[in-house]
Amino acid sequence: MLQTRFTKLVGVQHPIVQGGMQWVGRAELVAAVANAGALGFITALTQPTPEDLTKEIARCRDLTDKPFGVNLTILPAIKPPPYAEYRAAIIESGIKVVETAGNKPQEHVDEFRKHGVKVVHKCTSVRHALSAERMGVDAISIDGFECAGHPGEDDTPGLILIPAAANKIKIPMIASGGFADARGLVAALALGADGINMGTRFMATRESPIHQLIKEKIVANDERETELIFRTMRNTSRVAKNAVSTKVVAMEKEGAKFEDIRELVAGARGKMVYATGNSDEGIWSAGQVQGLIQDIPTCAELVSRIVREAEAIIRNRLEGMIVSKQREAAE
């Protein structure tokens, strides 16, 4: 068993996290992750109202008695969701760990911590991680350029970002972006993280609430099958490469503004991808890690395999490379 500062902090068996994913972080996936001994997060804003979130938390509790959390992403919007009401639903439901993401979460961090809720804040840079640490969060999830969704604007890959953050962050830290297997977990621990966060990998599991054809598409795709949209608007997002993303990138190169592409990138269209299995229906998130995903296991199979193989890598492969003076003399 691999025990880290993070597993002790949140009370889970394995240093593996399934972070918030729009339209994907639902009770059936989160409960399966929790039952596997890892930490799953329900995505709050996937639920249409705070009342729906309360029901989804209750549904998850019917499926597991293990710890799980809720993701609350705070993003600028013309008509922002009722964040305070979603926050209240999380607190009143007795959730003990929350993943926050987005801008200036201080108000939410203060309120959550006042009610004994542990806060894991997702960041894409060392400076933002240090800012979150000063705000009083309990742990950091540091997101490298390889990730699905928003990688920030610094283009710093995990191999640099994780140890750079570990050099300065004192609280537990989860590594995000590009993780799918035991090799990634061992590498993240070696780089100074206390565990890994996986999104795209958990999308391609039996319990993931998305269409089977999309799971099969993730398995079929290689590491080149993503595109960066909203690059010209400094709101970069890594998505699965398809007819829509290619059109958006081409329009951006010709000077298109958000209003010009709004209909193409509408969330409702992306949601339909997961419902219909048509991967060209709209924009949907996936990371470069698609190139490392070769099957669609249950969450229990996936988590146990990663932990088992990680222990073997540490005990056999890495330890076997250490040559003592006595052994060297004997050989």
UniProtKB/TrEMBL annotation:
Tree of life domain: Bacteria
SUPFAM superfamilies in the record: Inosine monophosphate dehydrogenase (IMPDH)
Keywords recorded for this protein, A-Z: Flavoprotein, FMN, Monooxygenase, Oxidoreductase
Leader sequence residues: none
Coiled-coil regions, chain positions: none
Molecular function in Gene Ontology: nitronate monooxygenase activity
InterPro entries associated with the record: Aldolase_TIM (IPR013785), NMO (IPR004136)
Database matches in Pfam families: NMO
PANTHER family: 2-NITROPROPANE DIOXYGENASE, 2-NITROPROPANE DIOXYGENASE-LIKE PROTEIN
The protein's name: Nitronate monooxygenase
